[in-house]
């Protein structure tokens, strides 16, 4: 089953990078969008640039009460929630012997526990409505091991497992649950990764960027529009796609 716009959407990590572009795509399709992140000013300027109804809901997704609270806010304001795009995330690298418990927990909190809690909160109203589209922005690090990001990769593998199991549990309810698994995307997160590579290795920024680009057979970074276009496709899908982790990485991981 498909639903025509406007759908009532919630997007986490909406203040910049992939999340911001996803919001712009959803709004361009005529959907109304509730946006959340910690940076209130960035959320407000994004909302001001959109021609659709918006809700600006600043929050830290790692606070245990945030997912229930934000889903309740959307349902209270708009009478339901049709789409949840769980994009907020953070990637901090470290060799495994320097991955302390705090870094491990930080990566799990934001990349695994927070999206789990949002899925848990969004399922009841979506099931009741007989329609829902849950999309987690995971990573190719959900599918393959990548050096120096053990904690991030464990969290991203975990969230893909949650997506697959939730999709099976909800398969007959009208609610689909999928993940999008990008390679290196041209965003502030990747800029921070490049700065870390420069600081640790001494190579210059151009060489560091080329190193990441060359991990993709297409020899360039993925754009935020390319990720948002797959989200658009999953939102508009009639329900046949569920439990998937769709890779967008220029061909390096073939699954
Ligand atoms: N860039 C890549 O190469 C790449 C590749 C694969 C997967 N991904 C995934 O794609 C997603 C988006 O990444 P990006 O590259 O767009 O990153 P980004 O540019 O750093 O943006 C991250 C977003 O998440 C929000 N966020 C982070 N921690 C948060 C927290 N504790 N509470 C609330 N919001 C939080 C940030 O907002 P505030 O700081 O304002 O709170 C920001 O809006 C992440 O899940 C990431 O793991 C990225």
Please give a structural write-up.
The chain is of the alpha/beta class. It has a single domain, classed as NAD(P)-binding Rossmann-like Domain (Rossmann fold), CATH 3.40.50. It has helices at residues 17-28, 40-48, 66-78, 101-129, 150-169, 188-201, 205-213, 224-236; strands at 8-12, 32-36, 54-56, 83-86, 132-137, 175-182, 245-248. A 7-stranded parallel beta sheet has the order 3-2-1-4-5-6-7, sandwiched between helices. 42% of the residues are buried. The site of NADP nicotinamide-adenine-dinucleotide phosphate (NAP) has 28 residues, from helix 1 and helix 6.
In summary, what is this structure?
With 255 residues, the chain is of the alpha/beta class.
Layout of secondary structure:
Blueprint lengths: L7 E5 L4 H12 L3 E5 L3 H9 L5 E3 L9 H13 L4 E4 L14 H29 L2 E6 L12 H20 L5 E8 L5 H14 L3 H9 L10 H13 L8 E4 L7
Bound molecules: NADP nicotinamide-adenine-dinucleotide phosphate (NAP).
The site of NADP nicotinamide-adenine-dinucleotide phosphate has 28 residues, from helix 1 and helix 6.
């Amino acid at each position: 089953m498909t639903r025509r716009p406007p759908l009532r959407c919630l997007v986490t990590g909406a203040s910049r990078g992939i999340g911001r572009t996803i919001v712009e795509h959803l709004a361009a399709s005529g959907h109304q969008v509730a946006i959340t992140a910690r940076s209130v000013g960035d959320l407000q300027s994004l909302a001001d640039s959109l021609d659709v109804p918006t809700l600006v809901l600043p929050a830290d997704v790692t606070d245990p009460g945030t997912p229930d609270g934000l889903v309740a806010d959307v349902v209270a304001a708009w009478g339901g929630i049709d789409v949840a795009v769980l994009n907020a995330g953070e990637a901090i690298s470290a060799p495994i012997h320097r991955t302390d418990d705090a870094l491990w927990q930080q990566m799990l909190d934001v990349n695994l526990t927070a999206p789990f809690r949002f899925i848990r909160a969004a399922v009841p109203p979506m099931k009741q409505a007989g329609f829902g589209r849950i999309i987690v922005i995971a990573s190719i690090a959900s599918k393959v091991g990548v050096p120096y990001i053990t904690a991030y990769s464990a969290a991203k593998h975990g969230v893909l497992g949650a997506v697959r199991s939730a999709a099976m549990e909800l398969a007959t309810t009208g609610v689909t649950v999928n993940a999008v698994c990008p390679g290196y995307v041209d965003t502030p997160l990747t800029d921070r990764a490049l700065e870390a590579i420069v600081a640790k290795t001494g190579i210059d920024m151009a060489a560091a960027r080329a190193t990441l680009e060359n991990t993709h057979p297409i020899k360039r970074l993925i754009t935020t529009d390319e990720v948002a276009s797959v989200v658009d496709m999953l939102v508009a899908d009639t329900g046949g796609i569920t439990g998937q982790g769709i890779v967008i990485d220029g061909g390096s991981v073939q699954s």
